[in-house]
Write a structure and sequence with these properties.
The chain is of the alpha+beta class. It contains twelve helices and 21 strands. It has four domains: about 15-80, no CATH class; about 90-170, no CATH class; about 180-185 and about 205-265, no CATH class; about 295-395, no CATH class. Helices cover about 30% and strands about 25% of the residues.
């Protein structure tokens, strides 16, 4: 029998979890720690309600140097064991309050996870595909501020966001970098770069052609250009591939500033940057829909099928399209896609696909059949019934 315990292999998920657990134990933590392999997280405490998600840590650890790995682990453990106590009053907390932008999916899906359920009511949308919340910024970590905490302080959510944005603006005096003419890159690298998109005055102060357009591929990256600047949009599109590499990547969706509001945006299909930008937007849409499907299906059981979101490239035109399958006799929640594939499972395999039709055509020929499901983002539509032979003929036209 070996006299020593086996050293964990940090290149594997289980080994990394073991290494993280040992580092936590070295701080004196004595609470139970369980590794949730399916969720790739550590659950701490008797009830397991406190958890540490390991996905981003693992990717960042693997890409770091040997010396850098030790520094990262030390920082992460300090963050994980930091006190959760917030100041007793809003005035005391105010100097350390900052806004934080995340993908909207992060907030929307928090209600499916017990350890993040408190976030479900503690944010507001930004440009439909992102969301902003308020955090308390510490040297080693940030802590989300819940609406309940704000109520205890006697302030509203919008008031707290405005105060947090003002704090961030005071930290944003350094001028943006300009990797190419017309393209602005945030210089701060403090993990709040992307969040500076909520500072409308800061964005409006940048010289661009047309309306300001932003990309937020990572928390520490904010790219700004103009909707009418073709060359800079092409440069932005090319840079996204590099910035979207894991860990800590968000997504490649673009937002356009109209007045003081952000809206989702893509250039026209003939624009030279369109293919790359459309691909990044579609990939983000697909990831959100798939994560939603994985979280939603177990809550619905076998009575309703949560359809997958699939993307493909048209052979002839090269256009990117999204599709979902609707099977006969199966109540289905469809994601909002470009095309619906109608399948009859009882038919011979070579005849199972009845028709494939654009979403808009389905709504026209089968009015009222696709009904929006309440309180879901990305949107899902409940599909019941089945087209008649005449309706199938019309869908094929």
């Amino acid at each position: 029998m070996w006299p020593f315990s086996k050293k964990p292999d940090p290149e594997t998920p289980s080994g990394f979890a073991d290494l993280f657990t040992r580092a936590l134990r070295k701080t004196g933590l004595r609470d139970p720690i369980a590794f949730d392999e399916a969720g790739f997280r550590l659950k701490i405490g008797e009830d397991g309600m406190t958890s540490i998600n390991l996905h981003n840590y693992f990717e960042e650890y693997r890409s770091a140097t040997r010396e850098g790995r030790a520094e990262l682990m030390e920082r992460w453990v300090r963050s994980a064991t930091a006190t959760d106590d917030l100041p007793g009053t809003f005035a005391e907390a105010l100097p350390n309050l900052l806004p934080r932008i995340r993908e909207r999916a992060f907030f929307e899906f928090s209600r499916f996870r017990p350890e993040t359920a408190f976030l479900a009511e503690s944010w507001r949308p930004v440009g439909e595909a992102f969301g902003v919340t308020v955090v308390y910024d510490r040297p080693e970590t940030v802590q989300y501020v819940t609406r309940r905490q704000l109520e205890d302080w006697g302030v509203g959510f919008d008031q707290a966001v405005a105060a947090a944005v003002a704090n961030l603006e005071r930290r944003s005096g350094e001028p943006f970098e300009r990797p190419v003419d017309g393209l602005h890159l945030s210089p701060y690298r403090d993990s709040f770069d992307a969040t500076r998109a909520v500072s409308i005055d800061l964005i409006r102060g940048l010289k661009v052609e047309g309306d300001p357009v932003v990309a937020m591929p990572r928390p520490e990256i904010l790219l700004v250009t103009g909707s009418e600047d073709e060359q800079s949009l092409v440069a932005l599109a090319r840079s996204l591939e590099k910035f979207l590499e894991p860990p800590r990547a968000m997504n490649g969706r673009l937002l356009r500033l109209e007045g003081r509001e952000w809206t989702p945006w893509l250039p026209e299909p003939a624009h030279p940057a369109f293919p790359e930008l459309a691909r990044h937007a579609l990939e983000a849409e697909g990831r959100d829909a798939e994560e939603q499907r994985e979280l939603l299906q177990p809550t619905l059981g076998d009575g309703v099928f949560v359809a997958a979101f699939t993307a493909y490239q048209h052979r002839r035109t090269g256009a990117l399209r999204s599709v979902a399958t609707w099977s006969r006799g199966v109540p289905t929640l469809l994601p909002r896609v470009d095309e619906i594939v109608f399948v009859d499972p009882a038919a011979p395999e070579d005849l199972a696909v009845i028709v494939q039709a654009p979403w808009e055509r389905v709504e026209e020929i089968l009015p009222g059949v696709l009904r929006p499901e309440a309180d879901l983002w990305p949107p899902r539509f409940r599909a019941d019934g089945w087209p008649t032979l005449e309706q199938v003929r019309l869908l094929r036209e």
